[in-house]
Amino acid sequence: MMVEIWVVTFPVSRHLISVGQTWLDADETARLTQITSPIAQDRFVACRTVLRTVLSHKMQCAPTDFRWKYGASGKPELPGAPWGFNISHSGDFGLVAVASSAYIGVDIEGLSDRRNLNAIARHVFHPDELAVLESVPAGNRARFFYDIWVRKEAVTKWLGDSIFQVKQISVLDALSSPAQVVVDGRGAAWVLPLRISSRFAAAVAIDAAGVPECPTPDIREWGDSLLTTTVGY
Fold first, then answer.
1. pLDDT digits (tens, 9 = 90+) for 153-170
2. Strands, E, within 51-186: which ranges?
3. Does the reported pTM lie above 0.90?
């Protein structure tokens, strides 16, 4: 199985944004108009543009050929396509994940202790996760919280569901090394961390059906040279 994680560093070039805006379909354009922050608008366009670029190279088609189908929680898919994909962005970074013939979920979050982490955890953490969180020294609590959060969010996005639906599963086994996380009646996913920056937590969940060993993601830095070759496709 091939898994690629494309790392997009913000701010991106205006060339990427100007090209990407012409590639958006009607649904994406409608979503863009609902985003009030210019910075957030650029991040949305950038990640969608990188996704279209990567998929167009792999599927040998134009980046405007894709018509997404959206799941109940808004996750885009390409029914019948040989690639699964997912997007996440936070602060300085965006992640675009693609996997051959597999559902995938990815998440990245900037570390912050300004939120009431324990209160949030009580809504979405498994009791075992919550017990460990409450025992972690205060200085390490934010790191632990986000390491758990991004793994649960990656599983959520793999499922195409709400994070409140994964309270009953624990990702503690996936903290120190890649591990399979089983969701009753929904299958299993390989869950593993992504080392992007010391100031961020990130993780990916890859469908484990027919995949006996955890894939090793190929982490790549985005560069506009790939965009240039796509524009000339």
1. 999 999 988 887 888 999
2. 69-70, 76-77, 83-90, 93-100, 104-110, 179-183
3. yes
